[in-house]
Amino acid sequence: MHKKHIAITLGIMCFALTIATVIQFRTVDNTNKTVSSSLKENALRDEVLRWKEKYDNTYLELAESAKTLEEVRKQATQNDTTSMAKQQEITQNNMLLGLTEVTGPGIEITLADNNTGLTSEGNEVLDISSQLVHNDDLIQVINELNNAQAEAISVNGQRVIQTSSITCEGNVIKINGQKITSPFTIKAIGSPGLFSGSLNRIGGYLYFMKKDGVYVETKQLDNITVEAYNGVISYKYIKIKE
Amino acid sequence: MILMAIVIGCILGAVIGIYAPLVPYTYSGYLAIAIIAALDSVFGGIAATLKKNFDLKVFVTGFFGNAILSILLTFLGEKLNVDIYLAAIVVFVGRMFNNLAIIRRYYLSKWTSKKQENEQVESAEKTEETSK
Q: What is the band of B132 on the pLDDT scale with cuts at 50, 70, 90?
């Protein structure tokens, strides 16, 4: 009996110790991939990771609060026609600004770097750079989509709004301050036929990208969801002219 | 039976640990200190067993108590802006080395005494043979 007791206690303790150790191993593996030789740099990296975590948590809270606000607003305006109209206006404006998730018929374009070094005809490529998807390519495609009357566009989950910039950051592309990388999925809501016709025409931008060997795929969809812009739109200088 | 319980505990812990959710990075420091404290208790337990004064109650309270206390002290240090966890690491790891030294000496003396016995037996056999 006594021996059994000891065995069970030791087993439970070993269980606790290994579970904690394995979780810690995985946590460290997940966050601190490179250990710097300098103590100070490690401390700074520590700080950055901690702040990032805090930021993510706060951001989640913000999203939650926005949801509650929406609900409260809905409840408050339920029995009042004027405020109901205002509420509808707000919802409509948010949709136009790109602050809500929207859905409708549209097109999904996938652009990806080609890693084979061969063009579409099977020849070896002279300039490997031409087989990569650059920020210019994304800008051109978005421009063509806008030309074909796109009503909402997103790239890898980042909604394109008035203030969106698409820049080259070395080996990644930055949009809305977020880094994204190949493969790029561009989603647009609008007339699928119009999109397809204007994008896939001979001599169009995608035609040349395909010819260079970039992986290009377009899919017409009856129902596509474009994500909401998840930043804060703030204006400092503009005013309505009297 | 005790060995079996330990092995089963370790395997179960490893398997569940692999599938358990990750600890937020902010708290991984506390977990690390707790692990060090627990490891220190384990080595202390082994050393006590070799010295034949192992007490399960002392061992269990040391295992969990040290872990929790070290977490609390680290937390306090964070609030006071003093790196108390450094002191905890120094104490625990120092004790770990002490206990490891005890374990090493125990097995070393066991090994050498066994060897001497064997040599004595061999030499005795040899003298017997020559006397024949």
A: low
